[in-house]
Write a structure and sequence with these properties.
By secondary structure, this protein is an alpha+beta fold. The chain is built from 7 helices and 5 strands. The protein has 2 domains: about 10-90, Beta-grasp domain (Ubiquitin-like (UB roll), Roll); about 95-175, [2Fe-2S]-binding domain (DNA polymerase, domain 1, Orthogonal Bundle), CATH 1.10.150. Strand 1 and strand 2 form a beta hairpin. Helix 4 runs antiparallel to helix 7 (about 155-175). Strands 2-1-5-3-4 form a 5-stranded mixed sheet, with helices on both faces.
Length: about 180
């Protein structure tokens, strides 16, 4: 039988931590259970439901976000590691004028089937097209490697990203004039 002190500890509320970081250019200061992940904070504390929870193991990409310029799966990022980090979610990307061609192209090419993987795919596409102005199909596939889609077969997604790359390139050229 456990001693009284062990039993008392089991009844104590879960330990919490305070985390300060940036989400979509806004300073965030939250106190959350130590077991929380970035995904938990986004969905339950900040009510950003665009970032989906799929597998919870970093395998499906439904919770893909950009953290300090790199793609990460939010389900694997512990709250304790967020201090001072800069996170961009699908909500932040959808507000960026530069992302409009990506979103429009996904819709046009019917790359949005059930929609569950779409936020992660759009975030990954945005990161990819921020890196490559005119990516090859192989670069697109590599850029989407962490994202699983069960509906489209990826062909429509690759077509959408190719078209978005062309549109973004046109927009850049028009800005230069």
């Amino acid at each position: 039988m456990p001693d009284k002190k062990t039993a008392e500890n089991a009844l104590e509320p879960m330990s919490k931590i305070q985390v300060k970081f940036i989400v979509n250019n806004k300073d965030i200061n939250v106190t959350v259970p130590v077991t929380y992940t970035l995904l938990d904070i986004l969905r339950y504390e900040l009510k950003f439901t665009g970032t989906k929870e799929g597998c919870g193991m970093g395998e499906c990409g439904a919770c893909t976000v950009i953290m300090n310029g790199e793609l990460v799966t939010a389900c694997l990022v512990l709250a304790s590691s967020l201090e001072g980090k800069n996170v961009i979610t699908i909500e932040g990307i959808s507000e960026m004028p530069s992302a409009k061609p990506i979103i429009d192209s996904f819709v046009k090419h019917a790359s949005v089937q059930c929609g569950f993987c779409t936020p992660g795919m759009v975030v990954a596409s945005y990161a990819l097209l921020s890196k490559y102005e005119s990516p090859t199909n192989q670069q697109i596939l590599d850029g989407l490697a962490g994202n699983i889609c069960r509906c489209t077969g990826y062909t429509k997604i690759v077509e959408a990203i190719n078209e978005a790359a062309v549109e973004l390139s046109k927009n850049k050229k028009a800005e230069v004039k």
